[in-house]
Fold this sequence. Notes:
With 286 residues, this protein is of the alpha/beta class.
Amino acid sequence: MKLVAPTAFKGTMTPVEAARLLASPGDMLLPLSDGGDGFIECLKNKFGGFITELPAADPYGHIRPVPILELPDGTVAVECAKVIGMAGLKKLNPLETSSRGFGSLLALLQCAPKLLIGLGGSATVDGGIDWPPITLPPSTVFCDVKTDLADAVALYGPQKGALEEDLPILQNRLMSMGLPLGIHTGAAGGLGAKLKSLGAVLVDGAQTMLEMLEFDSACQVCDAVITGEGRLDASTLEGKLPFVVAKRARLLNKTVIGHFGSKGDGWETAAVCFDEVRFEEPMAKP
């Protein structure tokens, strides 16, 4: 029996869909998210609760309903990628996109007893520069990378559509905002730093999710682990979920198979974290 524990294949499948596709009969499914795509889906799959919708603006200011999850204990979970994510956008341009819609959504949730915030997969690199005033309730932020704010533009700007000549402009904007530096502050184009400045606690999204969903206990009763996501590249080593899964599974002496839709710069270095790596763009089952 294998433990099938992938995260989302962006633009193709959610974590739950990916787990179902990669599994064989008898396997154990544990869909995961590091704070990016599929964050609230994975929490609901494990803990239950119910989904409601609130209006929020996408990166180009278009208002539409976005899902939030209320867990059985009243905690509210929100997912950055559902609001200002890259999926479904006709173009990517971080000089034009804004994270204000996500900030405005958090402003609507200031009375929640507690917030769990999934931070990853954003189309923005603005550090929350035009957010409304917010007083956060106790908030834990699941960050999909460890990156410092100062390094966020160079590492992730091109993935979000930035041209080489855009990078100094984006860097100067981020670094002029007086936001805190440190681990995880570069997550979601600097929103980690913005939320830290508002009193939120930034955590390693993958590690924390594995602990919440009791990954070690599930792993111990399986022979091998299957994980993966849409792309394997150098950023995988920045704390992306497949890397964390592989590291934890190997500590438990399990074979780890990584499935990825594509490869990017630095994939060879990241590939050594897995016992076997397969590249294939998966298609959801009918």
